[in-house]
Design a protein that fits this description.
The protein has eleven helices and eleven strands. The longest helix has 62 residues. Strand 4 and strand 5 form a beta hairpin. By secondary structure, the chain is of the alpha+beta class. Among the domains are: 105 residues, no CATH class; 147 residues, no CATH class.
Length: 471
C-alpha cells in the first residue's frame, strides 16, 4: 500500500465529518419546518486494497470511509398510523362541530327556546279562558302565537343556512383533495426520476408525505408505496393517484336543501360510480347532509328539519281541531287559528286569527262567557303526542347525539395525538441530538485533520530529509 494512501484515508474522514456536520446543520435549520423529516448521513468503511501474488504484503488497513447516502428517518408504519387516526379524528370532529351548531339552533334551555314560547302560548289560552271576548288577553295570545311561529320558521331557516354552509364546505374540500392529488402525482414523477438517477429526493418525499396526510384527513385515503419510489393513494381500494395519473372526485346531488337528491361523491372519470368514504372530513360532511329516512337515522340536518315540520303540522292541526270543536263569543264554530302548507309546514306556518272574535273560547252549547274550550286548549301542551312532546323528543335526540359525538371526537383526537407523538419521536428534529452530533463530528474532523498533518510530516521526512545524514 502506498504511503500516500494515508492522505486519501484522512481526506475521506474530513469529507465524512463535514457531510455529517452539514446534515446536522440542515436538521437544525429545519427544526421549525412543518413536515420536515430528520435526516442522517450514513457511512460505511472502505475496505483495504486487495493484494495477490507471491509478493503480496500482509492484509492492509481500510481506506477510510464512504458515504452511502443521506437517510430520511421516517417510519412507514407510523406514517400510516397517523394517516388513519387523523382521518377518523377529522370525521368525528366535523360531525361534532356540525351537531354542536345544530344544537345551538335549539336555544334550549333558555327563554328564547321553543319550550318557553310554547309555555307562554298555552298560558295565554288560560288567560283568554278567564276573560272570554276581551281584546287584551286575546292580543297577548296572538303575539305569543306569532312568537312560536317565528321561532319555528327561524329555526327552519337556520337549518337551511347550516346545510348550505356544509354543502359549500363539501365542494371546497373536494377541490382541495383533487388539487393535492395532482401535486402528489407530479411529485411521484419527480421522485421516481430522481431515484432512478441515483439522487436522494428527501425534500420531495417530505412534501409528498405532508400532502398525503392532508388527503387522508379529508378523505380517509390510504397510501401504498411502490418499488420505484412513487406511491398510490387509495380511497376504499380505488386509486385516486397512481404514479403520475390522477382520478379526481366530483360532487353530485342538489346544491340546495330542498332540491331533491342528497349530495354524494363520485369518480369524475366514471360517472355514476359512487366513492365509498370510510373516514375523513368528507365522510363527516356527507353524513350531515344525508336525507331523512323513515327510521329517523338519516342526516342530522334533514332529520331536524323533518321534526320541525312535524311540530308545526301538529301544532296547527291540534289547535285548529280544538277551535273547530268550540264556539266563538258570536256563537259560531271557531275558525282555523293557524294556516300552513302541508308540503312545507315549518316555513309556511302562520297565525290567521286576528282578534278575540276568532277565538273559540266556549264549549259546544256554552254561552258567551264560557271559557271551557279555551281552558281545554291550554292543556294541549301536556299531551303525550302533542307539539311540546315532539319538540322535547327532538331536543333530547339532538342533545344526546351531540354529546356522544363530542366524546367520540375527544377520544379520536387523543388517539391521533398519540400517533403523531410516536411519529415525531422518530422523525422530528431533536436539538440536543443534533448538537451532540455536531460536536462529535467536529472532533472527528479535527482528528482526520491531525492524521493528514501526521502523514504530511512523514512524507516530508521521507522525501526531503532521507539521505541527508552524514553529509
Amino acid at each position: 500500500m502506498s504511503t500516500f494512501s494515508g492522505l486519501n484515508t484522512a481526506m475521506s474522514g474530513l469529507n465524512a465529518a463535514r457531510l455529517a456536520m452539514e446534515t446536522a446543520g440542515n436538521n437544525l435549520a429545519n427544526v421549525g419546518t412543518t413536515g420536515y423529516t430528520r435526516q442522517r448521513a450514513d457511512f460505511v468503511s472502505a475496505g483495504s486494497v486487495a493484494s495477490t501474488g507471491l509478493l503480496a504484503s500482509r492484509p492492509g488497513v481500510g481506506q477510510g470511509v464512504v458515504l452511502t447516502g443521506i437517510a430520511r428517518l421516517a417510519d412507514a408504519h407510523l406514517d400510516a398510523r397517523v394517516r388513519g387516526t387523523v382521518a377518523l379524528a377529522a370525521q368525528s370532529d366535523t360531525r361534532a362541530e356540525g351537531l354542536a351548531n345544530l344544537e345551538g339552533i335549539l336555544r334550549e334551555p333558555g327563554e328564547n327556546g321553543l319550550s318557553a314560547l310554547f309555555n307562554d302560548f298555552w298560558a295565554g289560552w288560560e288567560d283568554v279562558a278567564n276573560q272570554p271576548g276581551e281584546s287584551s288577553p286575546a292580543a297577548v295570545l296572538l303575539e305569543r302565537a306569532k312568537a312560536v311561529v317565528n321561532r319555528i320558521g327561524l329555526s327552519r331557516a337556520e337549518l337551511t343556512d347550516q346545510w348550505s354552509a356544509q354543502r359549500q364546505s363539501l365542494d371546497s374540500m373536494v377541490n382541495d383533495v383533487n388539487s393535492a392529488a395532482s401535486t402528489v402525482a407530479g411529485l411521484n414523477a419527480q421522485i421516481r426520476s430522481s431515484i432512478a438517477s441515483g439522487g436522494a429526493p428527501n425534500a420531495l418525499l417530505d412534501q409528498r408525505s405532508a400532502l398525503t396526510q392532508v388527503i387522508a384527513e379529508l378523505s380517509g385515503a390510504s397510501v401504498r408505496e411502490l418499488p420505484d419510489g412513487s406511491v398510490d393513494v387509495l380511497i376504499d381500494g380505488n386509486a385516486l393517484v397512481t404514479g403520475s395519473t390522477v382520478r379526481p372526485l366530483e360532487v353530485t346531488g342538489s346544491p340546495t336543501f330542498d332540491g331533491g337528491a342528497a349530495p354524494a361523491l363520485q369518480w369524475a372519470h366514471r360517472p355514476g360510480q359512487p366513492v365509498a368514504l370510510q373516514a375523513g372530513r368528507l365522510a363527516g360532511v356527507v353524513s350531515l347532509l344525508a336525507p331523512a329516512d323513515t327510521t329517523g337515522s338519516g342526516g342530522s340536518l334533514a332529520e331536524a328539519a323533518k321534526s320541525l315540520d312535524d311540530i308545526a303540522s301538529k301544532l296547527a292541526t291540534t289547535v285548529n281541531t280544538a277551535q273547530a270543536n268550540g264556539m266563538t263569543v258570536d256563537g259560531i264554530p271557531g275558525p282555523p287559528f293557524f294556516d300552513f302548507d302541508p308540503n312545507d309546514p315549518a316555513r309556511s306556518l302562520k297565525v290567521v286569527a286576528t282578534g278575540a272574535k276568532d277565538l273559540a273560547t266556549a264549549g259546544a252549547g256554552g254561552g258567551k262567557l264560557d271559557g271551557s274550550n279555551a281552558s281545554h286548549i291550554s292543556t294541549l301542551g301536556d299531551s303525550a303526542d302533542g307539539p311540546d312532546a315532539l319538540w322535547s323528543s327532538m331536543v333530547i335526540k339532538i342533545g344526546t347525539a351531540t354529546k356522544a359525538e363530542a366524546q367520540h371526537a375527544v377520544s379520536a383526537a387523543v388517539a391521533a395525538a398519540g400517533a403523531v407523538s410516536a411519529q415525531q419521536s422518530v422523525s422530528a428534529v431533536s436539538i440536543d441530538e443534533e448538537n451532540v452530533a455536531l460536536i462529535a463530528n467536529q472532533h472527528a474532523f479535527q482528528g482526520a485533520a491531525r492524521v493528514m498533518t501526521a502523514v504530511d510530516e512523514m512524507l516530508d521526512t521521507l522525501i526531503n530529509r532521507t539521505g541527508l545524514v552524514g553529509r
